[in-house]
Amino acid sequence: NEYILEVKDLKKHFHVGKGIVKAVDGVTFSVKKGETLGLVGESGCGKSTTGRTIIQLYEPTGGEIIFKGNKIEKLKGKKLKQFNREMQMIFQDPYASLNPRMTVADIIGEGIDIHNLATGKERMERIYHLLETVGLNKEHANRFPHEFSGGQRQRIGIARALAVEPDFIIADEPISALDVSIQAQVVNLLQDLQKEKGLTYLFIAHDLSMVKHISDRIGVMYLGNLVELAESVELYESPLHPYTEALLSAIPLPDPKVERTRERIILEGDVPSPMNPPSGCRFRTRCPKAMPECAIETPKLKEIKPGHFVACHLYN
Ligand code: SF4
Ligand code: MG
Asked: What pLDDT, in 10s, does the model give residues 181-239?
């Protein structure tokens, strides 16, 4: 099986007052061992919730999550502990996710202790080595998170994730909170680590330009659904879903003198509430190509070309 992770019809609904927010509503995709799958969409599309449900921060409402061939809901005892080590998460806000009262050494050492990976001198050496691996050094070990810049804090978050020797990392908007000048450095670090350690990434971002250079394949989410999934180059060159087309048309061109080959598509209106999504295709209230049937039938994700999946009635 070339897939390290398989997500089948995943649902995560939240009760809010008297309503139900269907944050993730039937999402299916797989991640190949060693690849980076980018997951993209506007805020509220369910991409973070998908990541958090996969890593069991949330209990799924429905569907299946299969990691290395095992259903994770069935994992217990040793197997569950192993899963908790093998899958790690890097968070968007490196400051909020680091305990301000713990030193960097304690933050990184926590996982080493929980999983009994090393003690004493060997433990400290591991921590120093991890700091070097992420571009920091020994001298940083006894400092506190507030003494670091945003980029350095994200490096600490990466070191913490690596400390338990994971093979799958969910990175939830790891560069969105960083200065543009720092973003490329963190992306390069993540790519180097992937090569060196054979890591698999689920890389969550709100905009396609952020995942372009790191993803092998990209999934696009809208209002709790996966609407398109394809290899990166294919998605950028031949997007099929009207929502993907609009997202791509919004990416600023690196050189303003280069002529835009894609018309800028401005979507009308806001993303509807996930509490009360439109019938049929959830994108229809903003879709420039909506047809009458789009209000009636919910389009299913289908493979239109080898490896290129889309959920849209234009491709029936
Ligand atoms: Fe637009 Fe209809 Fe396709 Fe939805 S199914 S994206 S409304 S054309
Ligand atoms: Mg988010």
From this structure: 899 999 999 999 999 999 999 999 998 988 988 999 999 999 999 999 999 999 999 99
State the pLDDT at residue 261: 65
**145 occurs within a structural domain:** no
Query: From the CB of 281, is ligand 1 less than 6 Å away?
Result: yes
Q: Determine if ligand 1 sits within 6 Å of the CB of residue 246.
A: no
CATH number at residue 261: 3.40.50.300
The answer to whether residue 151 sits within a structural domain is no
CA of 289 to the centre of ligand 1 (A): 6
Determine, yes or no, domain membership for 120. no
How many domains would you assign to the chain? 1
Residue 125 has pLDDT above 80, yes or no: yes
- Whether the pLDDT of residue 245 is over 70: the answer is yes
Distance from Cα 173 to the centre of ligand 2, integer Å: 7
Percent of the chain, pLDDT > 90?
A: 83
- Model pTM above 0.90: yes
- Whether residue 119 lies inside any domain: the answer is no
Cβ–ligand 1 distance for 314 under 6 Å, the answer: yes
136 lines ligand 1 (CB under 6 A): no
Task: Give the ligand 1 atom nearest the CA of 241.
Answer: 6
Task: Note down the domain range covering 193.
Answer: 3-101+166-315
| CB distance 291 to ligand 1 below 6 Å | yes
Tell me which of 220, 244, 294 to substitute to probe ligand 1's pocket, judged by most ligand atoms within 8 Å of the beta carbon.
294
64-71 own/partner pairs: CB under 8 Å, 24+ apart: 64/6, 64/7, 64/8, 64/9, 64/10, 65/5, 65/6, 65/7, 65/8, 65/10, 66/5, 66/6, 66/7, 66/8, 67/4, 67/5, 67/168, 68/4, 69/1
**Stretch 273-279: mean pLDDT:** 91
